[in-house]
Amino acid sequence: MSGACSYQLRIAVAAPLRLTVGRLGCFDFPAGSYAYTGSARRHLEARIARHLRRDKTLRWHIDYLLAAPGVSVVAVLRTRRGECRWNQATAGELVVPGFGASDCRAGCGSHLKRLAA
Rounded to whole angstroms, how far apart are CA atoms 116 and 75? Predict the structure, then answer.
């Protein structure tokens, strides 16, 4: 989508997972479907391509999850809608407080949500 500024990764976690997410800490991720909402002011497609690569330096919270065994991106959605607005409109459970929301000023709590089955 031309002009998109936000993206949402739909992620499958095949089995329950205990994972250390950088300095955020250690968390349990139940098996299931997740949505991670992010944005890029420039180079959106490069950001998405980086998320999809397996070989990368673990820099952002999402990198730690995507590098874990049994975790895969099953879809990538794009929109012109703002990142926080889209995240807040996505129904789901907050599993990891603060995940992907270090710079969030909208009170999202997390930009990763476990989607209802």
Answer: 16
Domain assignment of residue 76, given as a range: 6-114
Number of domains in the chain: 1
Residue carrying the six token digits 């490069």:
46
Residues in CB range of 78: below 8 A, 6 or more apart: 1, 4, 6, 7, 8, 44
The residue behind tokens 């997972």 is 17
Q: What is the pLDDT of residues 9-25, one digit of tens each?
A: 999 999 999 999 999 99
Could you tell me the pTM of the whole model? 0.93
φ and ψ of 28, to 5 deg: -100, 130
